[in-house]
Amino acid sequence: MTLLPDALRFLSVFCAGIAAGTWVVTQLALIPAQRELGEASAITLLRVTEKGIVRYNPLCATASTVAGLLLLTLRIPPAGRAALLTTIGCLAALASTLISMLWNMPLRKRIAGGPPGSIPAGYPESQRRWNRGNLARMVLGLVAFAGYLLATL
Questions:
Q1: Percent of the chain beyond pLDDT 90?
Q2: Can you give the pTM of this predicted structure?
Q3: Three-state DSSP class for 68?
Q4: Residue 55 above 90 pLDDT?
Q5: Which of 140, 152, 142, 153 is nearest to 9 (CA)?
Q6: Among candidates 88, 55, 68, which has minimal Cα distance to 14?
Q7: How far apart are CA 35 and CA 146, in angstroms?
Q8: Between the CA of residue 153 and those of 1, 95, 146, what are the distances in Å?
Q9: Do residues 12 and 68 touch, judged by C-beta distance below 8 A?
Q10: How sure is the predictor about 87, in pLDDT bands with cuts at 50, 70 and 90?
């Protein structure tokens, strides 16, 4: 094997795993914690946790998608089960990245972008929409991770 195919496979699996793992923790821990808090505290929790997540997760989701696209473009693997699984992984990574960038990130800015302590108009509905977007990107992120991982085995 050459270095490029191995590096692309590693990036696809590693970055998809980080992105999906972050969305799983968000779904299973942060969203339930927000539900237990009052609106102002829930928004503060979102602001605090998102500062770190926004630094790395969009990059990981994008890197996973780009690595998958390069694997497919370069025909690594050329055909068969591994190619099908890579295609599934890449499509799921692309979909989860688009949901994140076009749905969740703009909603997060709307919810948490105001002055500290402020609660935006329509907060409960915006938060529900954000939660649904996270659920969708989490499921797709897990499919991407599984597809890429199974393609390498």
A1: 84
A2: 0.94
A3: helix
A4: no
A5: 152
A6: 68
A7: 30
A8: 14, 23, 11
A9: yes
A10: very high
Residue type, 144: A
Q: Model confidence over 64-86: pLDDT tens digits? A: 999 999 999 999 988 899 999 99
What is the tally of structural domains in the chain?
A: 1
C-alpha to C-alpha distance for 87 and 147, rounded to whole angstroms: 8
DSSP state string for 93-127: HHHHHHHIIIIIHHHHHHHHSSSTT---TTHHHHH
Single-letter residue type at 20 = A
Record the tokens describing residue 127, joined without a space. Answer: 């938060």
Q: Which domain holds residue 110?
A: 3-152
pLDDT tens-digit profile of 10-54?
Answer: 999 999 999 999 999 999 999 999 999 999 999 999 988 888 898
Tokens 């996973």 label which residue? Answer: 64
Encoded tokens for 72: 């497919």
**Cα–Cα distance, 59 to 150 (Å, whole number):** 22
